[in-house]
Amino acid sequence: MNLLPTDLENMTNVRVMSITGAGISVGSGLPTYRGVDGHYTDIVKELKRPIEEIVSLNTLKKEPEVLWRHWHHLLLSLQSAVPSAAHHALKRIGDACGDYLELTQNVDGLSLAAGLDRSCLVEIHGSTHSFSCFRCGAKHQLDITEDMELPPRCYECKRPAQAPIRPDVVLFGEDIRQDNFNKALRHARSTNLLIISGTTLQFAYLIDFISAAALNSAKILYVDPQASVDNPMLYYVPSQLEIHSKIHCIKNTADEVLPKIATYLESRAPLAGLVKAIL
After folding, report:
1. pLDDT for the residue 2
2. I want to staple 151 with a disulfide (CB 3.0 to 4.6 A). Which of 38, 68, 98, 246 is the partner?
3. What is the rounded CA–CA span in Å between residue 125 and residue 40?
């Protein structure tokens, strides 16, 4: 059922979707990927190769030890990470509305750690909390330690030297799962509020969700220290949707803004007053 703008003034439950990136985990003590001190930035400097080559399916096949230098550092950093104020706020937002879905680009599992129901989460890039053999697909549990074997090998395979274990994450050169994409797109097409936070919108497929929400006349908030209507990716939204006049950019951190959004939605106040209330 599509709600009309007049319905949104009085409704007690809204359909909400959030698109999240690494910025929501900064408050958890995790760096972003592409920032000055980002995960990708460090390994690119060290190896002097583009990240699209390092974190790729081809590297997993030919040089798994190179890829595992990146993964090992990332996995060790995740061991002490706890959900941020932003993660907890997103859980509150989900509880406050009648129908909620978070599409996260993150692989850290912190949205689930904050208590979000798995049915309300699409981990579009997979998760570092599950592992499988690249060769046979067998599932594995790994004890991530400083002195672990790199790359870890699948000894269920006849040729373990050719069978590195990998986190179940999407690499450059791999496609995202179609069922995950379809689930998110269905929700975007009927959402009344789209919250984009902690991401610079580097991945082109995100435009499909933003466009779908705009076509449904959803209110769209973009929360990020670098949020801007001039983000190059937004120019890929079909011009007839007039996204630059519909999107509200809030240049602040997710930890600061998302709790305010949660509080407003919990108050059951009209959605029309949201932007004014949180600024």
Report:
1. 53
2. 68
3. 15
| Residues contacting 177, CB < 8 A, separation 6+ | 124
Contact 266, 4 (CB under 8 A): no
**Sheet bearing 193-197, strands edge to edge:** 121-123, 99-104, 15-20, 193-197, 219-223, 247-250
Residue 260: pLDDT band (50, 70, 90) is very high
**C-alpha to C-alpha distance for 155 and 82, rounded to whole angstroms:** 32
Phi first, then psi: what are they for 111, rounded to 5°? -65, -40
Rounded Cα distance between 236 and 231, Å, is 10
Say which residues have a Cβ less than 8 Å from residue 62's Cβ, sequence separation at least 6: none
Backbone phi and psi for residue 169, each to the nearest 5 degrees, phi listed first: -120, 160
Catalytic residue among 39, 72, 87, 125: 125
CA dihedral 205, 201, 261, 113 (to 10 degrees): 80
Has 70 been annotated as catalytic? no
pLDDT tens string 68-123: 988 998 899 899 999 999 999 999 999 999 899 999 999 999 999 999 999 999 99
What are the angstrom distances between the C-alpha of 214 and each of 23, 71, 190, 207, 243? 23, 36, 10, 10, 7
Residue 241, C-beta contacts closer than 8 angstroms, at least 6 positions apart: 211, 214, 215
